[in-house]
Predict the structure.
Amino acid sequence: MSELYRNAAEQSDAAELQINPVFARPGEATSLPKFKLPDGMMSGDTAYQIIHDEAMLDGNSRLNLATFVSTWMDDNAQKLYVESADKNMIDKDEYPATAAIEDRCWRMLADLWNVPDTTDTIGTSTIGSSEACMLGGLALKRLWQERRRAEGKSTERPNLVLSAGVQVVWEKFCNYWDVEARYVPVTEEHLVLDGYELDTYVDENTIGVVAILGQTYTGLYEPVKEIAAKLDEIQAATGLDIKIHVDGASGAMVAPFCQPELEWDFAVDRVNSISTSGHKYGLVYPGVGWVVWRNKAACPESLIFHVSYLGGDMPTLALNFSRPGAQVLLQYYQFLRLGREGYREVQQGSIDVATYLSSEIGAMEQFELVSKGDTIPVFAWKLKPGERNWDLYDLADRLRMRGWLVPAYPMPDNLTGLVVQRIVVRLGLSRDLAELLLAAVTEEVDFLENLEAPIPREKQRKSFTH
């Protein structure tokens, strides 16, 4: 009888689960505190459903044309991600295979970026390109300090020269590490840092110059070779030997494949270090960046820590300690899966979609292109002068209502009067989707052109350049 009773009870429980779905089961909470821990426990199914439902309110990441961050990976990558989500990259003694793969990845990048001697170089993975930039900047500062001390000179008031169009990480670097930021203004004639009047910004306290390979505002490359040539002239005139960090967050994973003739990497003698974002055009989900130095001497030993309390002697070169190992494995997967040929095909496909979109948008009578998407697959446009009852912020709002996030924002200081709109093309934005986007842009522009009065609202002029 007890066995029959147990079977009947199990059947009854199963029936109740079918009759009473999540949120309708007896005793389940339907309203929970937002800013303090609940007092009791709940079903995992209910907790999942609450979070799942709230996350549905986010936009569709595939239609987010503001972000540079990867939003798609294939099924094998998904499996690898789940299998390795528990790996801590810092614990190299416990996860030696993952540590070895990390080493292979940055060495592959060093080779890709034409490091002079693959046996005399150093690099590391990071949480993203922001941490990689921080490490590149810190190495420049430490090298400058060591050189100044050896010469018996002051190490106070270091400065870093960079375009006003840099990503916010460089503002953070200068703020956090007590470095004066010397921003070279962007103008209509000089939309990027190109060496123009560079001699008026550098001096004996300059720790380095940042060159951006793929500016976030427009997608344009800063000409590393021209900047280096200007610094050569400055050294010849003043004796100042100033190195370059290339912020290749996006372009360092595009240029080697799609613009192989471009001279921007370690083939340029003044390049001290290069950073990139594995989770942008490295084609990996968020959580990985990379930085590589020209040689071991370019990264001071004082930046490397040795710890033993996790087992063995483990050198660490990072601002973060614990960090995900899964994304490093995903990066290696992409390197093996795609190779040079695959990366070229993927990135060129994105560039082709970007240049198709830019040519179509540039042909519209209301717009003028600022960039074309033929460097990294990113382009921007502005409104042509004229009287109208709408602006690019209005167009951004109309597109957002249809699910497309296409940001509008002002350019940096000295050019803030210029408002542009930008599209970032990533793996996953197909030609078919691009045509649907163009149809939406055309329809919304037609709607706005027929407005009899401006839209009465307070515009949110936020920057979506990250």
